[in-house]
Request: fold
Amino acid sequence: MPRDSYAAGFGYQWNQHRLTQLDSHSGVPISRDRLLAQSGWSATELRGKSVLECGSGAGRFTEVLCGMGAEVTSFDISSAVHANNATNSGFPNLRLVQASIYEMPFPQQSFDYLLCFGVIQHTPDVERSFKTLFRYLRPGGRFCIDVYAAGVAYLHPRHLLRPVTKRLPPKTLYSWVKRTAPPLLPLSTALGATPLVGPYLARLIPVANHQHLPLPNKATRRAWSVLDTFDWLAPRYESPQPRRRLERWTRELGLREVTIERHRGLHVVRGVK
Reply:
């Protein structure tokens, strides 16, 4: 892959935060719980099954899948694969590849499960990305894909900053976020504690605040805040999707047992090919 792809910012952030979101680092099963809750899968059913993970980042879900005994093929377009490799290369059931979502070097219809979290809204063509994934899933295979939900995502104040921030070099933007996010975090927390309207007031502060997660200490909370604030501001592309469009795509692909659920600012799409 070219060094300066549209996902260069993601490569930078994940190499800065290789360990931040790993369950093995935080000591809290946040990634495991999210994967199982949103997919509806179980650790038992995944053991020994072939799983394609699309857009692995630093490998928070790679670690979970490998730990459950799945045969995992994970790829990312960015240099985040180096962070993932540094963490998860000890798993004998992991195959890690750097590749584009549009040109995956795998046999089609060759995987039992497909997982794609936090990816397709940041690709140049979301519909093409969504539909391309299913070429690699076997008939009868299960999938879980999430995407930013249109409407709620567009109301976020980050969109006032993104016309500028997405054009900044990743190193420059990260330095700015690392200085500004920690001081804004207490303000966001204080606003969030306001009765009735707290969650809405907290959204006025353009800083990621994970009050809903059982993070173990303030240092971890600050690290997650810096990471996800950068993640909001850096991507070249961000295209949230309405539910009706996702429903249309699943019909056009002939997918079965499809459910689309809202999880905070995400639509989570799961079902069977």
